[in-house]
Design brief:
alpha/beta, UDP-N-acetylmuramoyl-L-alanine:D-glutamate ligase, 4-stranded mixed β-sheet, 12 helices
Length: about 350
Amino acid sequence: MVAEALPNSHEAPPVVLGLQPAALIDNVAPVDWSLLDQIPGDRGGSIPVQKDELEHILKELDTHVTAAPLKKMAGGSVANTVRGLSVGFGVATGIIGAYGDDEQGQLFVSNMGFSGVSISRLRKKKGSTGQCVCLVDDSGNRTMRPCLSSAVKIQADELSKDDFTGSKWLVLRYAVLNLEVIKAAIGFAKQEGLSVSLDLASFEMVRNYRSELRQLLESGNIDLCFANEDEAAELLRGEEEAGPEAALEFLSRHCSWAVVTLGSKGCIAKHDKEVVQVPAIGETIATDATGAGDLFASGFLYGLIKGLPLEECCKMGSCSGGSVIRALGGEVTPENWQWMHKQLQLKNLPVPDIRNL
């Protein structure tokens, strides 16, 4: 399969690079329990589906009366994080991956490019672009069903050192099917002096592929790791101490920075011997939890890039994560970026100098 790279206009290297092997379009819809009851698997989780299952769910959504229409946008954890850093914090970001020569692929490229993310490291390939259905219940919880089995994606041997030269951070999401390209990217990143951030993806991924994940963490190549409460529980399942604090301690033995997000209870984080606990920001009832962890990572990384103390990094993350749950989908609206900037001002945190919000 021939990959076609997008042209590079001799841009400066992005500060933060995201690796998302397969481009992804999110189909986000508010639903009620009657539809969720028809979808196999745990509510609130993320389970891969085949193309016919995806099409079946989308067809059901067409006939399912909801208060809001289906929203389509570039998605995927890494895309959400780098887009958030670009739009909400003014950090130069780029994304590495592949997209198909279809309508979804074009939508992904245009959405990321419009958001200021460098798309010169995206490869166009013949085939289909990944899609995900994000079903949001009236409590704001999202159930995700990604379809990536037939999607084009970038391979390990398509990466080069030049993709990483001059950048400072590489953002990754754990996925066992992408382990080869993840390890290749980490190898180049370390050669080029980048720090590496890893998100644990989902509790199902941690549960089913825990040994591979532990090996990755124990390699010593992961500088920053994000886990939510459910992923943290799976990481230490069966052990005597398996709560968020124990998971934080485990992660901090292998990573310079470790963060466990606790939903409405905020987060705990550790760097060296310092441990902080930060409450959630704002009193918003989540409209949609999609992207909350991804945007938390945007804010936390911004804090690290700016050299802020650990507690302030957590507060930046909490404000950023709180901004995305106020509307459907993993892309923050201009109004909600303004809400976040107001929260930063109220807490005497640095407000990014962003135009056109």
